[in-house]
Amino acid sequence: MVLLIMGILTAVAAPRLTSQLNQHSVGSIRSLIETDLKAAQQEALTTSSSVTFSIDRLRNLYSITARRGGTATVLKTIRIGADPWNSQITSLLRGSTKQSVDTMTLTINGAGVFAENLVINLASGSATGRTTVDAATGRILVE
After folding, report:
1. What is the pLDDT of residues 106-135, one digit of tens each?
2. Closest CA to 140 of 45, 36, 27, 24
3. Which of these CATH numbers, 1.25.40.10, 3.10.20.310, 3.55.40.10, 3.90.180.10, describes 2-142?
């Protein structure tokens, strides 16, 4: 009898737990992308050199590259599909026309200005989220 009750409780709780884990995964990667874009912007300002944020929907990753001493140096690479995020990039929308692309390199100039708009749509299970770069205002929005 106790096992039957435990089985019923597990069956009821498991979907909720999975949903919460998926929401946490998407929220974590959205926040990390926001933090990394702000760090890239600060790197560009500090060094007065351009920094690039390259994102690849097909490979499910992004990287940040800066010029240091005339050499391109990869500062960070994040594999979004790996632990602890277990999420995927569902679409990338580029520029003011929101053109759908599979890969994109967003340049941040030495004054910390983003070259163009970018929308990154993310998912983990049924949970979704979005990070938007607004080049006109320099803001990074997380939804």
Report:
1. 999 999 999 999 999 999 999 999 999 999
2. 36
3. 3.55.40.10
